[in-house]
Amino acid sequence: MTYSNHRNRAPARSLLSSALVTCLMLGAAPSVMAQSATSSLRGQVAEAAAGTEVTATNVASGTMRRATTRADGSYSLMGLDPGTYNVVANGQTQKVTVTVASTATLNFSGAPANGSTANATNLDTVNVIAPTLLQEVRTSEVGKTVSLQQIQTTPQVSRNFLEFADAVPGLIFTRDAKGNTSLRGGATNSDGTNVYIDGVGQKSYVKGGGVAGQSGSAGNPFPQLAIGEYKVISGNYKAEYGQVSSAAVTAATKSGTNEFKGETFYRYTNEDMRAKTPAERQAGQTKEASAEKEYGFALGGPIIQDKAHFFVTYEAKRFDLPVTIAPDGAVGRAAALLPPEGAAGLGPASQPFQQDLIFAKVDFEPTDNDRIELTFQDRDETQSQFSGQTAPEAGREVVNTDRRYALRWNHSGERYYNELMVTHEDSFNNPTPLTLANGITYTAPDGTEDRTVVKIGGASALDSQVKGQKGWSIEDNLTLDGIQWAGDHTIKMGAKYKQIDLYASDAAQINPTFTYTLGDPDFPDSIPYKAQFVKPVTGVSGVSGEVRSKSKQIGLFIQDDWQVNDHLQLNLGLRWDYEKTPSYLDFVTPQQVVDAIYSQDPRAAAGQTYADSLALGGLNIGDYISTGKNRKAFKDAWQPRLGFSYDLNADEQHVFHGGAGRSYDRDLFDNLQLETTKLALPQPTIYFRNPSTGTCINGQAACYDWNPNLLNGIGNLQTLVGSTSNAGLEVDLLNNNLKVPYSDQFSFGMSNQVGEWLTDATISRTLSYDGFAFTLGNRYPTGQFFDDPRLCGGTDPGLSQAWSCNVPGFGSLIIGQQGIKTRATQVLLSAQKPFTQESGWGTSVAYTWTTARHNRDINEKYAFDRGLIEDYPTIRSNGAPRHRLVVTGSYAGFWGITFGGKVTLATPTAVNDWYGVPQASGYDLPTPQAAVPNANGKFLLGGKIFGYRSVDLQATKTFKMAGDTELYARIDIINVFNFDNFSTYNYVKTNGKLQASYNETGDIIGTPRQVKAEVGFRF
């Protein structure tokens, strides 16, 4: 199979740009376009004979669904696209709106009403007459729906539609200093999330980030113009949701209608429309040039009236984002010791990014019982990445592409509904260094280890990669309705098969990195103290710098929504997932490595093998040596999903809800592939002697004399260590019994409808297990992980990890295993008053209280502070702040101006690092610990209690023109009060305690005060 990184896409961009110019009069009126997702409408028709017809006609598209009443007058309409419908039964007509992924209740009285809708009810996310979004009350799922009205009126720092999930309790949307965005739930990272577009998961199987293409990206996963509304589920999802252990987002896209509707927009900001960043203020310089341009169009309309429609949209981003290059907070003072070329790498910089997004859909309804949809989506982006301690020249360019097709056939029967989907995806991520040259890293000691001050020159060889996924799937879901036994049952069952080719290459033979230390009394700063470079392994079979694996996935589920009576509903589900990844299962540990591990440990007494030394340290290396036949795919991913809702008065005004369930995610291929690629193209690290003492820094054993000629090509470094030698080359091994990360979720709460207000209070508990991590396998001959480095060839006494106790004839042993655990308890409070034309305003309030602990930083998969992951202490999580409040609102004001606002407040989030604990030997033992930075901000009342504050406002003026056409102008002011929301920290490690404070010249979360101007046209 041939894999491509899709770099040559410029003609497509030119074509799309031309299309935008010619389509300025086109777009999509999102307030009336139909959606594409499945919802259900059910209820009672009083005094109706069995077989009475009930019809629902979509107001926008003219499509119709039919059902007949049962003997008791009940009916069920399944497979409804979210939207507004005229529902007719027994001579009565009611106009209702159903929302995405919901079950709505609509009852009809016995007397025909001649089409009047005045007395129609609004139950279970059905809104009568006006298309106002209401929360689904009778459900055990924990989550909220984000309406199109909220998408259109809430201030927005990016056009990433997931940003609005930030207003759902338990969810956090973040834009970092590089413009990269992420969405995470609970106290975990974004890897556990999944986004479903029209029911199709967008999961990333190779890299992190949850959604394919979203790892370290400033782009959007999907064009916002194509989103109609979406539902965010933070816990206790039903059995149909797979490959998710955190938050699930299910979105409905827009479709064409019986009228041609269009929209185009252009959004802009630059450095003149923002305040200075903290780094720019500190440097006393003018603002770094920056700009953000976003533009796009959408068009939808009929192909055949009431039968077939089309919808197409295009969105583009062209950014130059301001970033800050600053030293690690623990060694910030060392910046004064940098040479001129190193100091020049610090300070503000501008990071370019560009993205093009396309979505197209054609739908066709040949009968009232059938709907066929064909969709296409394409993402193409290029981004230069640098920030933190990495100067622009040492950054990398990332080409990110994602292309998907989906064909869907929905069929409705009298008492059943079937969905058949076939999909194809092609998603690749390809970083390359911006500069081909030696990399130079300046570090400084912080008391225990070296921390980075700045990186200049070329990016690491590890920044030259190609990783991606390509394949197809078929899925069928069948819903059976009207099954009566001790109540009413709606049973949904489904099966999915997916074949996906996973690909990874992890490094290239370029850009060796030389590291200098500043201010270290034991080593001069005129020569590097170490170098890292790529050296191909020699004489080892069965390894390759590229890995391809044909993964096969199976998912099965069954869900019974059991309406026991008018008060009690039970949601009983069971899911099973299975994945077979041949590159892991069939891997054979090279015999040369096996022989080395079971050979004499050169640092131990005669007869003690290296495997014996590992065993003394609690590591059974046999659990990591693969024969190609002793690994089995994980088959125990059984996931019970149980929930209930109890309607206190059977009127959906006060409903208790709760549930318990298990959810399995998956192991990222980015971790699994390292067993092969690391050994094929390892990156050994060698150290250089101090010319004055003849020793290497920290007593390292892999010690060589420095020669300036080593700067003249990677071949000189490879020759230095020996062209036929594998000494110093890293060996990565994975546990033979890898499981799959999962979470157990529990919740209990109460939802209320009080007038127009919708409230909810929920307590949730999430226990996450089997997170993946790499640890250092090396052990001293004593079996200890920490010991005197002289036991493994070091020259200086101390207490350090066994970095020099390498596999005989190779380098360090890195083992992949599971064992990261997270415990999180959250109180989720929300109140929502939906916007209505009658009241002219709407608001939402979301408060989250979190207490969470884990045994490893949520953003780190390498854990070298302890020998085994289970040896790590449980500390406070850095996944979520203790308190977080998000308030949004919209108001139809004077002169036809619509105002919107968002206030976000959060207390400081803990940071995870380590501190030295004095030992009897007189040396310090590095020990993981959490610290909470002192709050630096106040808001309205109280003192400095916040770590994050932002007040965002927007105003939109619409100018009505002839017919249904209109122009609009919009202003967004992000971070109105210019609060500094710092994201980097300074550390103090004294008296056996870790203390942290914000680095007030470093990067920030979000942006400084910024004005965004937008104009658009609709018809």
Automatic annotation (TrEMBL):
One of its GO terms (molecular function) is siderophore uptake transmembrane transporter activity. GO terms for biological process: siderophore transmembrane transport. Its main location: membrane. Pfam families: CarboxypepD_reg (PF13620), OMP_b-brl_4 (PF25183). It is a multi-pass membrane protein. Keywords: Cell outer membrane, Membrane, Signal, Transmembrane, Transmembrane beta strand, Transport. Coiled coil: none annotated. It comes from the Bacteria. Residues 252-321, 348-892 form the TonB-dependent transporter Oar-like beta-barrel domain. InterPro entries: Beta-barrel_TonB_sf (IPR036942), Carb-bd-like_fold (IPR013784), Oar-like_b-barrel (IPR057601), TonB-dep_rcpt-like (IPR039426). GO terms for cellular component: cell outer membrane. It is found in: Cell outer membrane. Residues 1-34 form the signal peptide. This is TonB-dependent transporter Oar-like beta-barrel domain-containing protein. It comes from Stenotrophomonas rhizophila.
